[in-house]
Write a structure and sequence with these properties.
Layout (H helix, E strand, L loop, with lengths): L2 E12 L15 E12 L3 E12 L2 H21 L7 E17 L2 E19 L5 H10 L4 E8 L4 H26 L3 E15 L1 E2 L19 E13 L2
Antiparallel strand pairs: 1-2, 2-9, 3-5, 3-6, 4-5, 6-8, 7-9
Helix pairs in contact: 1-2
């Protein structure tokens, strides 16, 4: 079930005086309109970007500790009901950690350790279980929650609904302009569309300490927007 949010439009009338000879395409009087409509739909899944950041005196130690903790995170996700095919490594890096010493306007950078980062992108198909999945990851050692983004597998029906609403608004306003200005429309010269993918909905707040209750996450709704532009010719 989709719910239409709004329909807005902007209009520009261009009335060019006909010449005594044949008119060029640019001289044909036109009415240019643009109308938009937005439709909301319930999200079908959540994408959690999370991982582990570790530091050690050398790169090998940092990577080893990171791997141990990430194995625990993957296991926690599986126990939370996330399928292995819905987990994907999004980032894996090892980099030196520097200290900076300033002496006489000169900066000396020394390596004081190494940092390993491993980030996993996990798709949680049950949007009511996102908070539990976050708590499971944090409880297993995840110390870097990047984001939680909600989405949908198929937005075609919602987009078509937005298109219908936008076109209906466009045609109604074209008739309104013609009636109010006292001219007749002789057809549509051109039509184009600007469509916008669903705007991601992020979780209500970042994770906190694991407690008896799951981390609260607000799924909200996705917004699909379609904008239709048309140029109507005006009869002489």
């Amino acid at each position: 079930m989709f719910r239409t949010l709004l329909v807005s439009s902007a209009a520009l009338v261009s009335l060019a005086a006909p010449s005594a000879l044949a008119q060029s395409e640019a001289d044909i009087p036109t009415l240019n309109l643009s109308a938009s409509a937005s439709v909301q739909m319930a999200p079908e899944y959540a994408m959690i970007s999370s991982g582990v950041v570790t530091r050690a005196d050398n790169a090998q130690q940092a990577v080893r500790e990171n791997a141990r903790m990430m194995n625990d995170v993957f296991a926690a996700l599986r126990r939370a009901g996330v399928d292995a095919s819905d987990m994907q490594t999004a980032q894996l890096s090892v980099s030196p950690v520097y200290s900076e010493n300033r002496t006489n306007n000169q900066v000396q950078r020394d390596i004081i350790g190494y940092e390993a980062r491993n980030t996993v992108s996990a798709k949680v198909r049950d949007t009511s279980a996102v908070g539990q999945a976050i708590d499971a990851m944090v409880g297993a050692g995840a110390n870097n929650i990047n984001s939680v983004r909600f989405g949908a597998e198929n937005t075609d029906d919602a987009m078509d609904e937005a298109r219908r609403e936008a076109i209906a608004s466009l045609l109604a306003r074209a008739d309104l302009f013609a009636d109010a200005a006292g001219f007749e429309l002789c057809g549509i010269r051109s039509m184009s569309e600007n469509s916008y993918s669903p705007q991601p909905v992020y979780m209500e707040r970042a994770y906190g300490m694991v407690s008896d209750s799951a981390t609260p996450v607000a799924a909200g709704e996705l917004t699909v927007t379609a904008t239709v532009n048309a140029s109507f010719c005006i009869a002489d």
